[in-house]
Amino acid sequence: MVEQIKQDAVRLTNYDDLDYLINEIGDAKYVLLGEASHGTSEFYKTRAELTKRLVKDKGFNFVGVEGDWPSCYELNRYIKSYEGASTSVDDAMKDFRRWPTWMWANVEIEELVEWLKDFNSNSKQDKKIGFYGIDIYSLYESMEEIINYLEKIGSEDVKIAKRAFSCFQPYERTEQDYGVSASFLSEDCVDEVIALLMEIQNHKSQYKHDEESSLNLEINALVAKNGEEYYRSMVQGGPDSWNIRDMHMVEALNRLMDFHGKDAKAIVWEHNTHIGDARATDMKEEGMVNVGQLIRENEGQENVFAIGFGTHRGTVIAGSEWGAPMEKMMVPPAMSGSWEDLMHLAGEEDKMLLLGQNSTSYKETVGHRAIGVVYNPDYERYGNYVPSVMASRYDAFIYHDQTNALNPLKQI
């Protein structure tokens, strides 16, 4: 396999070399850009450059990221220069308060946001590029956004929204407590959030008072409905909570595509574990699905181009446990025999590799490193390598031999 990589790989010496992948993407409607960690600068910078090219050269309409809808929507309003939006990118970033804040509140994203804002300044309002969070975690924040908006426009639907929100209030924003109560004590808020989502969908035409307000309301209601189900299933274990989350992200993408019209194109930024086809990993045996698999199944593989990312060694931003302070950690050399080790043995330069056209060459199952927001380098060989058939998991792969930690806005 090392010899095959040597033969097939294309050097990535500067961002102009990305022309190679831009050409291969062709007419795909969805370009899925992965990352092997949530805290590596090179992954963010390379995805940003690909995003710029896709926007300029391929007419892509929006970026959907593994982030909360309310906080990312503030960036979207800033990028599109909406009335009342933040006047600076620093102000727009202040909504990223949920741990891990560094995922989106970082220098690399600030630079992309400023580029998108500048690009939009020369575009008509309905052609401006959007930036949206498609994740599921912002249950409380999304419900507050709904109530604030409905109160602002004087809608009677605010009563239903407040009734739903009051159902969650006894848990004092501790979603896990709600999950325990809902799962084991049958004290859930299912009826309330479903009623809220249905009411907002039925009255969608009434909410078009300003830019994207109807979309904003609809996705926040979707987060409330699916977020309730996610936290209820999370405490029970098994694959359900993972599947609910990834299915929510696909549903959010579908609604964004509908909003942007029949010719819409989406760029998706998520971890490799979300955008790489789950059927090519051990996730399949565990009953798990993911965004990459579902979009390929729903849209046809010819309309989707998934790019995985990886590194051999370097530094990364992560926490030692959930909610812990962020740290700059060492990423040790990849485990012997892993995909990253094979890429390194094939040459220490940064490189790109097409996988689909050489499917017979990369069909062997190998360990592929995945670093989450929680990380312990000393124990990574015991749980950070996902058995993967690379040719089936991605259409292409970008490899940075040595990488550096992301640059959070908040100093470490």
From TrEMBL:
* Name this polypeptide is given: Erythromycin esterase family protein
Q: What GO terms describe the biological role, i.e. biological process, of this protein? A: response to antibiotic
Which InterPro entries does this one have? Answer: Emycin_Estase (IPR007815), Hydrolase/PRTase-associated (IPR052036), UCP036794_erythomycin (IPR014622)
Q: Which Pfam families match?
A: Erythro_esteras
Domain of life according to the entry? Bacteria
Kindly give the CDD domains that the UniProt entry links to this protein: Ere-like
